[in-house]
Every structure is written in C-alpha cells, then in structure tokens.
Write a structure and sequence with these properties.
Layout (H helix, E strand, L loop, with lengths): L12 H4 L3 H12 L9 E5 L5 H10 L3 E6 L2 H7 L7 E5 L11 E7 L8 H10 L1 E12 L5 H10 L4 H4 L12 H10 L4 E13 L3 H8 L4 H4 L4 H18 L6 E13 L1
Parallel strand pairs: 1-2, 1-4, 2-3, 4-5
Antiparallel strand pairs: 5-7, 6-7
Length: 262
C-alpha cells in the first residue's frame, strides 16, 4: 500500500480504506503475475493493514510470509491478520531483510516512496533465492492533476515557507528503465507494463478524499494541523481548475506493474 517513510505516523487506515475496492484491483492484477511454488518464503513490503498480505500468504500456501510496514497505525490493524506462518513487523522498507533471502518479494504500491530505485532493486535482487520472483506495483500518476495540484500548492505561500522549500520528489523511473534494470541485474525473464485504471467516482471532491489517504499524508506530516487544512483547501482549488465538475467523474490512475524471475 502507499506510504511515506517521512510521515509514517500520519497514515489513517480508515481514510485509506475509503477506496478499498478501487485499490484492490491493482493488487489482484499484480498477484496474477506471480507463479506459485511449494513452501515459499515471502515478504510483502508495504503490507499496510495486512488483509491483502494474508491473501498472498493463503493463496500461495506459503511456508512463511512477513508483512513489513513503517506505519505503526497500519500495523496495529495488521496484527489481527496474523496466523500460522504469517507475521508482521515494523521496519524501514528500504533496509528490511538484511541477511535474509526469499522466494518472492512482493510490494503493492509502496516502493515509490523510496529513493534510488537502481540501488533498491539491486539490493532486492540480492535477497532472492535461485528462481525467486519479484512482483511490484507502483503508482505512475505524478504528471496527472491529482498529484500536480499538490506540487503547485507546495510552492505557494505560506506553505513553501512552512515546508522549508520541500518539494515532493518523484523516485519512480520510466517503465522501460525497469525492463533494462531487470536485464542488467541478471533476471532470467521479466514483464513490465503500464496499466490505466478507471475509477468512477461520485464527483471531483472524491479525488480530494482519495489523496488525503495517500499523497497528501506526506504534507500532513510536515505541516501544523491548521496549516495542513489550508493546504488541502488550496490543493482542492488547483485540482478543480484542472478537473471538470462531472457527476459521476471518471478518475484515471496510471500504475506500473512489473514481475521478474531470477
């Protein structure tokens, strides 16, 4: 799930799950790329509240699955999903698993928060057993109104001063770069694709609620509460300048899905 290392305690499971059904389809599509194997050892980086991690564990009949997240609020919910062979741990996604190897490294909408993807994927590749798989889904919507409106607001006063000039970085590479990266890292086979998800929302106001559970958490962790509320209002103003007032509204969201085997 989508999360920011810098604002790990600002995540709201309730806000995130307001769009539970819409967020589930990319997980289903990503999991369909995985090849099951016997007695797999699995890690789910960015497990969130754990429901989907448990699906991975049960559908693969895995010997062991570890769900990893850096948000205490999410893991507090995830503990209810723990069962035989499935556990959840609080850890930085960028460094988890040192000295350990896995048959499957799975991550659904989390690794876009981590910088230097070349180094990140190189480290993940080193943590795979022979024949191991990596399956990753990351948002690729950074040039769309839902994200651009936040960038514009962050560069305006008084937010620019309060943020100390911080601009949310984009760590995600172009899709073809991941294909080249898998090749140079020695993966035997890989698939990389961009998929446009189409969500029918009641209105453009729903986009604001959507990003309050994901993208805007980064700013919530950096701004005082009162100023953050003003930031959301400014974000909405810019968003509405770019998005028509259709009811219902077609909200498109681009995502990169990738899978590779050692």
């Amino acid at each position: 799930m989508e999360k920011s290392p810098e604002s790990s305690d600002t995540w709201s499971p309730e806000q995130y799950h307001r769009f539970r059904n819409e967020r589930r389809q990319p997980f289903i599509d990503l999991f369909s790329m995985v090849s099951p194997g016997p007695d797999m050892h699995v890690v789910d980086l960015g497990c969130g509240t754990g429901e989907l991690t448990r699906h991975v564990h049960e559908l693969l009949s895995a010997a062991e699955t570890v769900g990893v997240d850096n948000a205490k609020s999410m893991l507090a919910k995830a503990e209810a999903q723990a069962c035989g062979g499935l556990q959840f741990v609080l850890h930085d996604l960028a460094t988890f698993g040192e000295g350990k190897t896995f048959d499957l490294i799975f991550s659904n909408a989390a690794l876009h928060w981590i910088p230097n993807h070349r180094a990140l994927f190189s480290r993940l590749a080193s943590q795979l057993n022979p024949g191991g798989q990596i399956a990753v889904q990351i948002p690729y919507n950074f040039d769309q109104p839902s994200h651009v409106a936040a960038d514009i607001a962050a560069e305006e006063s008084p937010f620019r001063e309060a943020l100390g000039g911080y601009v949310k970085p984009v760590h995600v590479l172009p899709p073809e770069r991941y294909a080249h990266l898998f090749h140079t890292l020695g993966f035997k086979t890989s698939t990389v694709r961009v998929q446009v998800y189409q969500h029918l929302l009641p209105s453009r106001e729903a986009i604001v609620e959507w990003v309050k559970g994901t993208t805007l958490t980064d700013f919530r962790g950096r701004l005082p509460d009162e100023l953050f509320q003003q930031f959301v209002e400014r974000y909405q103003m810019h968003l509405f300048e770019m998005v028509p007032d259709d009811r219902p509204l077609l909200f498109t969201f681009n995502r990169i899905l990738m899978w590779a085997r050692r």
